[in-house]
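Format notes (please read before filing issues)

Several people have asked whether sequences and structure tokens are stored in separate files. They are not. Every record keeps both together, in the order shown below: the sequence lines, then the token lines. Line labels are part of the format and must not be stripped during preprocessing.
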Amino acid sequence: MADLLQRPSLAELSAVEPWDAVVIGGGITGAGIALEAARRKLKVLLLEQKDFSWGTSSRSSKMVHGGLRYIAQGDVKLTRHALQERERMLVELPDLVVRMPYIFPIRQGKFPGRWAMTAVLKLYDALAGIRDHRWMNRDAVLKAYPALKADGLQGAMRYTDALTDDSRLVIRVLQEAVLEGAVARNYTEVLTVQPHSSGSTLRLRDTDTGEAHEIRTRRVFNATGLWADRLSGTPPVVRPQRGTHLFVSAERLPVQDCLTIMHPDDGRPVFVFPWKGQTCIGTTDLDHRDDINTEPHCSSAEIDYLLKVANSEMPQLQLSRRDILSTMAGVRPIIASGKGRDPSKERRDHLVWQSGGVISVSGGKLTTFRQIALDALQAAGVIDAAAHRRAHQDRQRRCFTHLVSAPHGLNNPLGGMARGAALTEQVAWILRHEMVQHLDDLMLRRLRAGVLLADAGTSQLPLIKTLCESHLGWDEARWQVECQRYQHVINSSYRLG
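Then the structure lines:
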């Protein structure tokens, strides 16, 4: 296990002449490309300007799903691919991807009704190769959720999709890539990409130390998501859209399934679901006009919007801002249609395009990262059309073939925060194997304490300080700097203003 996500020096990266492929971007798309390229025996380097999964890939709705909305939009192909990947991950990553019941209440006079949902779910299950949807009558729904508004309730459709911890999924894909021979490094910015006859020369900078080096590579994959337009060398194609989630305690909002409820103002579906021992409400869908280099935060209007949908369906609870443990705002890189349509109506498929020796990819879904990677490799000429087709169609092909023995409960999307000896074991393992450079890497993306605990995990910091001193060599001065940095991020982006 000693070779998992160990951070190389820039000098070590420069010594490789040349790399077969450099992947820029450490979210789920970049991690997937690195994995699939390394699996084909390429010398692959992945570079991330911040922390792995810092952007969209740690702030999604945590769902590995086909997407019922995509069927409604007529995108059966995207749904089929997503469902195939969902089923694959449920088998291969049972500790990290968990099948969950989804409950869709049906109300009299409200769209969609029972029979429309039944027809959609029959197709949904058929595309996945399963059959587990069924009708719940009104009494069964109210028995399971007595706080649910009874007026007009006819029953509910029950089906299944899956939940994950999106940030830990990125780490797991990166671990798999490293075990296949890839190299990864976070907090490393690509300043320039200079194409030449045999590939490209990249100028790199360590964003913490300022140290700079050059490397050479035969191929460049631009998997930077929101930042894709800056490296693509083409006219902009990305439309940044913000989605916000609220976290409240499970005691205040108890749910054992993923409830799908329709917002009374615009008819958008919003999910209320259990996650890591608490309850999550989300998401919104708005154009994001702030600087994409700045940690995003939710607006007051988004908080009101999400509280309103929860209280409209469960009025007995009377949730308020006092009940919110934390907020989480993420920005999705949507491929713009150019039609000026409502953000919620933009398609969620991905785009691969090339210019100046750079293969760019953006958009898409967390669930289909492997499919997106295969499309990027085909565009780069790493695989041909026949190999691409076989990889897409082969449902028996494993994506995760290596055993990574993470501490018990660390990856579980339903389990709560560890305490005591279990927490010590988890933190020590993370610090040894997951390239933590800053306290917020650990607290917000590896452990999730910053969003799950009312105090953002500050009560656990004495224990964590000792472990950071032991495993990372931090002294008192470094610890104080890291605590200040972490508190600033929490106050500016994860707590109510």
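For reference, the curators noted about this record: The chain has a mean pLDDT of 95. The two ends are 42 Å apart (CA to CA).
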